[in-house]
Design brief:
Elements lengths: L9 E4 L8 H23 L12 H8 L4 H11 L6 H22 L5 H13 L2 E5 L5 H8 L7 E3 L1 H6 L9 H9 L7 E5 L2 H9 L4 E5 L6 H8 L3 E3 L9
């Protein structure tokens, strides 16, 4: 009834864009932080070969989505041939987080109705649930969205730093989630809206990798290429699979 193979006993959900609509908040905060940096870079005099065009939705999907904050900054700057020291990377990351937190406090968090329906069905069916997110704001987002009661364990950006885990697309955070739940990866399903997260699920050889395509275009195709077992537009689609 959950659209998963019989051997799956644990569900490992990414958070932003999978359970909650906060992915759009992240994208907006990244756009503000990067565009501010790019504008200032241009005014100060760019270096040969640098691309200072404004941050785009595709930049978010290709370089930032699903990755730990500092990794996302470095990946985006590298894509634009921009060299930056650690202090600059941290300044951009801090700017993004400050804007995200301000928006979160002002506007709150909305869970996807289809995701709530799936979580309720999963809990009723006895599927155990954990969240694996690169965000350091994972606890606050879950609490604001009213989803904390569903979650048995949480691996987030703080865990990644404290335990020195590699961020997505490496499988470390998902493997840690499976470990906390007491199962091997073959008995866990990964639920992701980011290409880097789908890649992490495939790299960890998890029993099932569900891609959630909320952007359209060729995202579903890219998820399949990255290793998704199935791609759906919302989680409750799986309830009728």
């Amino acid at each position: 009834m959950l659209g998963l193979p019989a051997q799956i006993t644990v569900a490992l959900f990414d958070l932003d864009g999978v359970l909650t609509t906060t992915a759009t908040l992240h994208m907006g905060a990244w756009r503000d932080a990067f565009d501010g940096f790019l504008t200032a870079r241009g005014e100060a005099g760019s270096r040969p070969g640098e691309n200072l065009e404004p941050f785009s939705d595709q930049d978010y999907l290709d370089h930032v989505d699903g990755r730990p904050r500092l990794d996302g900054v470095r990946a985006f700057l590298a894509s634009r041939n921009i060299a930056a020291d650690d202090a600059t990377v941290e300044k951009i990351a801090d700017s993004k987080n400050a804007q995200f937190v301000a928006t979160l406090e002002r506007d709150g968090v909305t869970p996807y109705p289809g995701s709530v329906r799936y979580l309720e069905a999963a809990r009723e069916a006895g599927l155990r649930i954990a969240v694996v997110t690169s965000s350091k704001n994972g606890a606050a987002v879950l609490e604001a969205a009213g989803l904390s009661p569903f979650i048995e364990h949480r691996v987030d950006g703080n865990t990644i730093v404290t335990e020195n885990l590699r961020g997505k697309p490496a499988p470390d955070s998902y493997l840690r989630g499976a470990e906390l739940m007491g199962v091997g990866p073959e008995h866990a399903a990964v639920f992701e809206d980011a290409i880097s997260g789908v890649q992490a699920g495939a790299a960890g050889q998890f029993g099932y990798v569900v891609g959630i395509d909320r952007v359209g275009g060729r995202q579903a195709e890219a998820m399949t290429e990255a290793g998704a077992s199935v791609v759906v537009t919302d989680l409750d689609v799986l309830l009728s699979a």
